[in-house]
Structures are given as C-alpha cells and as structure tokens.
Write a structure and sequence with these properties.
The chain is α/β, with parallel strands linked by helices. It has three domains: 7-131, P-loop containing nucleotide triphosphate hydrolases (Rossmann fold, 3-Layer(aba) Sandwich), CATH 3.40.50.300; 137-248, no CATH class; 271-330, no CATH class. It is 43% helix and 16% strand. It contains 16 helices and nine strands. The strands form two sheets. Strands 2-3-4-1-5 form a five-stranded parallel sheet, sandwiched between helices. The longest helix has 19 residues, at 248-266. The chain is globular, with a radius of gyration of 22 Å. The chain starts with 6 loop residues before the first helix and ends with a helix.
Length: 332
Amino acid sequence: MIIRRELQDRVIKSLFKGKVIVIYGARQVGKTTLLREIQKKYATDSVFLNCDEPDIRSAFTVATSTQIGRFIGNKKLVLLDEAQRVADIGLTLKLMHDTFPQVQIIATGSSSFELSNKVVEPLTGRKYEFWLYPFSVRELKTLYSPVELRRMLEERIIFGMYPEAVNQRADAEDIIKSIARDYFYKDILRYQDIRNPEILEKLLQALALHSRNHRKELAKLRKVYFYDTGLRNALINNFNSFGLRADVGSLWENFWISERIKNNQNDGRGVNMYFWRSYSKQEIDYVEESGGQLAGYECKWNTEKKHKAPSEWLENYPDASFQIVSPDEGLE
C-alpha cells in the first residue's frame, strides 16, 4: 500500500533547476519508495543506484568524471540511494553537478548527520535540501476518513507513524522495536564513532522519560521531543494502552508538535519554534513565529477542564493568538 508523500510534489517542482537535490531522513521513513515514485515519470531517462551495493559504492568513491559518465550514460535523472555510504560523497556530487549540468541528481541518506556533514561544504550553493519524516496525519487522510483517524489516534501515538508500522498494524510493536534498534546501533552509534553505547542509551531513555516534571538541567535550555512517539515508546519498552499510562499528556504533546513540524516542512513553510515559560512558571507548550506574528498552542489530551491562555502571555503579547489543541481539533 503506497500513500503518496506530500514531499513528492515539492521535490518534483525542484527538478532540473541546476541544483543537486538532497533528501535526508532516518531509516525506513520511505526514502527509497519516494525515489521510485519520482522515477516513474522518467522511467526510460533515469538510473537508480543503490549505494549499499559494494560495486556502486566502489565506483563512486574517488571517481573521475569519465567513470561517472559511464554510469550516467544519456540519462537525465540520477537517483543515488543511501549516498552517505560513499566516501567523500560531497566531492563526488560536486563533480557530477559541475561536469554534467544537464543531469538532475537526487541523493538520499538514512544516516542524515553523516550525509549532511559530507555535503554541506562541497555543495554550498549547489543544492536543495529536504527532510522526509514518517507518515503525517495529513498524508493518512488520503486513505482514512476523519472518523477512522480519530479511532486509530491512540494506536498511532503508541506505535508511531513509520510507514511499515502503519501498514502492518498487527505487527507494529515488533516493527518499531526493530526500527529503534537499527536507528540506534547503525546510525547514532556510528555517527562520529561514538564509543560508549551504554551512556548514550541511558541518555536517550532519560529524554524519553522526561515529562511534565521538568528536569532542572534541561529546563533553562530547551524541551526535547522525539520525531516519532513510537520510537520513544520503544526506547522505554512501554506500549501500554492509554488507560494504563501516566504519560498520556506528554505523548499527545510530543505527537502533535511532531505533526506540526511535518506539515510545516512538507509545505516548505519556515517558522521559528519556541517553548514559552515565564519566570513565574506560566507556560505554553509550543509557539510559532511567522511573519512577525506569534501563535501559541497548548496541548491537552483531556479537555474536561476549561483551559485559557496564561495571563502573562496575554499581557506581554496582546496581538498573539492562543489555542488549546485537543485530540479532536489537533487532527485538523
């Protein structure tokens, strides 16, 4: 079951404009599927190269323009999947861009930190960058009705929005546990050759357990969220239903803010994002600033109690908006 990704339209609009396209995203968020969908329009004029394959990886490592030309041939579109697997891929992409300006190159990487480090300097001024996340609620609306989405909301918050976890709901727990292990051991630990997995694992678990009881060491700087709540639950091995959890409010807050970020990214909408807290500890979960306007959002799973904007928010920002985000409104 293929759900059309909203990012696809933005990538297609950026084709053949003289830039290398780089798509970042964690393992199994759907980058390969996205490339294959884009490729369909250029079936006879494109080549798909999987850099996990040893021969492809070897051919593009310290490659000359002549060697690269043999792979490209007369193709208009070159798709490099798992590009971070190629040593010095940034220099190779620069060479391809400068030598074959008529060719559109799209490179993806699941180890996003690693790929970003390799392409930032060589491709300065030569690239468009995109982020692909797990499914968004808005993307699921193409398959499910609003009523169906509301019914499955708790399940999606618990098991997350990774495509495989969504498409194979009966096996979602095993799937997200496997993804978490892959992400942890194959990407994070390899990044800059991290040597102490036990300390890193404990740090991630501490962040996963960090909830409305604000830890003093984090409070002064920022709040930390997981881009997928299923990954968060896998780290602490807690897939209990909402009736058996004490962290429902925090999970809803994390889930909704993640969805908001996905929508902004998919729309190409640049905003400044903040967590707001006053000295008297009045707070708002999420604040966006766009075009000089502030919008505050407070996430509440349980809306039986009436909630209103903090008095200091209203006093200091009289022109700003404020909204309570409950599960019903939050899906919109």
